[in-house]
Amino acid sequence: MTATINSKPVITPKPEDLATRFVVVRAGEYRRGLRLEEIFWRALKDVAAGAGLSLGAFVRAVEQASDGGGNATSRLRVLCMGCLMDKLLSVQNVANRGLANSLVQASPSPTFALATDRRIVSYNQSFLNLIQARLSIESSSAMARNLRLSLDLQIVELIDALRLKDNMPVGTGFVIGVDNQRFRGRVNAVLTPVIGQAVIICYVLPD
């Protein structure tokens, strides 16, 4: 089975994740030796911390809840995967394309959101007011059909710059045109935390 992460195929696990390690966990007088892959040790520590327990106390609680039945390492692997899948589902419920639109609409300043193909996927009323104040447009539907936008930075360059700066805002110029009319301005751009295709939110700066 082939999965993809950031559009890159993932066919085999990382060797460092696949390596197994034997660890004796402790909680008071409780001792338990376990052999797990490194990726599960990392996940188990995260799940235990989320439960407010030490690693040893968490393993003991899991073992007590199962009354000692079943394979302890298998139970812990399944538990880790279940917890991480629940987290992923929670993130997916929030980090969808609708989040970008919500952030755009919440902004009091002219704001729009761009997809990686430079399509404007969302804009607020302040942005519409700005365009109508700068350009002579018959209607908003005419604007939607004929509006063209370009950034001084290429989209790929902008995304790379944002990731390099841990998504701190990156400024760039833009040109918006409708038919033969154009005006120039500047924006502060940030990446929206959405799953799937990147979305860039652009906050128009005052002249």
Notes on the protein architecture:
The protein is α+β, with helices and mostly antiparallel strands. The chain folds into two domains: 3-94, Orthogonal Bundle (Ribbon-helix-helix fold); 97-204, Beta-Lactamase, CATH 3.30.450. The chain has eight helices and ten strands. It has helices at residues 15-18, 38-50, 55-65, 72-94, 97-106, 125-134, 140-146, 155-164, and strands at residues 3-5, 8-10, 20-27, 30-37, 111-115, 120-123, 147-151, 170-178, 181-191, 199-204. Strand 3 and strand 4 form a beta hairpin. The longest helix has 23 residues, at 72-94. The protein is elongated, with a radius of gyration of 25 Å. The model is unreliable at 1-7 (pLDDT under 50).
CATH class designation of the largest domain: Alpha Beta
Uncertain runs are 1-7
Please tally the helical runs, counting DSSP H or I stretches of 4 or more residues.
Answer: 8
Strand content: 25-35%
Distance between the termini: 53 Å
Number of strands: 10
CATH topology of the largest domain: Beta-Lactamase
Pfam families: RHH_4 (PF13467)
Protein name: Ribbon-helix-helix domain-containing protein
Domain Ribbon-helix-helix: 34-81
Organism: Flaviflagellibacter deserti
Task: Write a concise keyword list for the protein shown above.
8 helices, alpha+beta, RHH_sf, elongated, 2 domains, 10 strands, two-stranded antiparallel ribbon, 30% strand, Ribbon-helix-helix fold, Ribbon-helix-helix domain-containing protein, RHH_dom, six-stranded antiparallel sheet, Beta-Lactamase, 207 residues, single chain
